[in-house]
Design a protein that fits this description.
This protein is an alpha/beta fold. Helix content is 31%, strand content 28%. This is ABC transporter ATP-binding protein.
Length: 229
């Protein structure tokens, strides 16, 4: 179910072709970096997978299930996809536990089960014991970990990252790289990770999909990319 496949996927905004006939499979449990310069269509690809936009042409499948083509789209909340953006969008007046548990509110999860689930995802992101801390007491890296934990608590089998390190300094970036690897190891989720930073893509991902001007140039392992001229 959590294999993602895009077929001949295109997206136009008026005169702009943001995505131009991309076909690519993201195997179940894989960690793929979408790499390319600003404006090449990476975020558009994520938005089409998440269901925030409809394709102009082509289709998106999760396993054998068609989730989007130009005529029909499964709504985002029915896709069980987690998304983490570079802006964390946390609630400043709530503590860490309240922020992390927020997605469970709409899901009829018994309140007796919530503390254990919060503790489990805080453990994955390295913030065990931070439940009662206020968001404005946290560093940028810690806030990004809270956003990551909030995404994880819904147990999505597909997790999309849109340049999550863009606002962090070099030192924090390397510690977050470890946190993302840990999330992948512990959840086994299918991860698509957007970045314009080649070093970041090669450090994190099992597969790197290189994009340019709305098209897919190459999809390969980091090892294959190091070897290619
Ligand atoms: P990337 O994430 O690689 O920086 P995007 O997917 O954000 O690229 O954008 C691809 C192209 O589509 C760019 O030329 C961008 O200006 C254009 N674009 C993206 N979203 C919109 C939109 N909502 N309306 C018009 N043009 C858009
Ligand atoms: P196993 O690999 O042992 O079958 P699961 O894959 O079901 O186990 O998950 C192991 C643990 O990780 C469970 O406690 C589950 O709730 C949790 N988990 C699984 N997927 C996610 C996810 N995407 N985000 C957060 N936690 C997850």
């Amino acid at each position: 179910m959590s294999e993602i496949r895009v077929e001949f996927l295109s997206k136009r905004y008026g005169e702009t072709t943001a995505l131009d006939g991309v076909s690519l499979t993201f195997p179940e449990g894989s960690f793929t970096a979408l790499l390319g310069p600003s404006g090449c269509g990476k975020t558009t690809m994520l938005r089409l997978i998440a269901g925030f936009e409809a394709p102009s042409e082509g289709r998106v499948l999760f396993g054998k299930m068609l989730v989007a083509d130009p005529t029909r789209q499964l709504p985002p909340e029915a896709r069980n996809v987690g998304v983490v953006f570079q802006s964390y969008a946390l609630w400043p007046h709530m503590d860490v536990a309240e922020n992390v548990a927020y997605p469970l509110k709409a899901r009829h999860v018994s309140s007796a089960d919530i503390p254990a689930r919060v503790a489990a995802v805080l453990d994955i992101v390295g913030l065990r014991g931070f439940e009662k801390r206020r968001i404005d007491e946290l560093s940028g890296g810690q806030r990004q970990r809270v956003a990551l934990a909030r995404c994880l608590i819904a147990e999505a089998r597909i997790i999309l990252f849109d340049e999550p390190l863009a606002n962090l300094d070099m030192h924090l970036r390397s510690s977050m790289v470890d946190a993302f690897r840990e999330v992948h190891r512990r959840t086994g989720a299918t991860i698509v990770y957007v970045t314009h930073d080649q070093a970041e893509a090669l450090a994190l991902a099992d597969r790197v999909a290189v994009m340019s001007k709305g098209q897919l140039l190459q999809a390969a392992t980091p090892q294959e990319i190091y070897r290619s001229p």
